[in-house]
Design brief:
This protein has 8 helices and 12 strands. It has 275 residues and is an alpha/beta fold. The strands form 3 sheets. An 8-stranded mixed β-sheet has the order 5-6-2-7-1-8-9-12, sandwiched between helices. Strands 3-4 form a two-stranded antiparallel sheet. The protein has a two-stranded antiparallel sheet with strand order 10-11. Strand 3 and strand 4 form a beta hairpin.
Length: 275
Amino acid sequence: MSDCNRNCESCSKSQNCGVNDMHEKLNQFSHIRKVVAVSSGKGGVGKSSVTAMLAVMMARRGHKVGILDADITGPSIPKAFGITRKARNSEMGILPEETHMGIKVMSINLLLEKEDQPVVWRGPILSGAVKQFWTDVAWGDLDILFIDMPPGTGDVPLTIFQRIPLDGVVIVSTPQSLVQMIVSKAQKMASMLNIPILGMVENMSYVSCPDCGRKISLFGDSSALDKAAGEMGIKVLARLPMDAEISRLCDSGEIEKVVCDEINSAVDSVEQLLK
């Protein structure tokens, strides 16, 4: 299925391939080669910033990239990219907004009148909104679509894992002793639903001393994450520093200016899906 473009209506196969038995139909004006979810067992680990950086780095490598912001109650992707325009309707469907680099973005904040307006919806409505971002948004041609998942293993993550054809999951965590249990929950959920896990990204792994360059592990060393990864047979794709500049770029809507060589190994793993 490496040549699948997620649009079953355009497929030349005469028989059902079995991949889309439970999957929602992709918008007919969209052709997406690969879909990768960026997940976390808990909030506050920098999942959205990792999603944004993965998208930026893939775009710099010449790929056509999109981000589906599935964190409906806590959307942050538009702010990280400085997007203030609202999404528009067309005959093809809802048109995602584009960043300066041409990354296509769809988020609930692009549909709300005010960005600080709370989304007070129950689980089924949240899940329905995410499905519409797949079925009703005209993504056009994309090499890869990143899905910024909500934290945890509730209704919306379950809907995404079951109803959107994922090619892999990247799990984001931090180097704390609690991580083993949290990562295990996310890993087991993906495994139960036969979703391949590409690996883990350890965020906020350390701070580099501005004077001597020594790495300082604010949250302890990486032994807990390494142990969890080893027991589950998952690779640690990258260890990212706690960097005030990355936070500043997200807050100012300039994440496309990010410099973070440490994430390149994770980008390499994601890019392998396209080969």
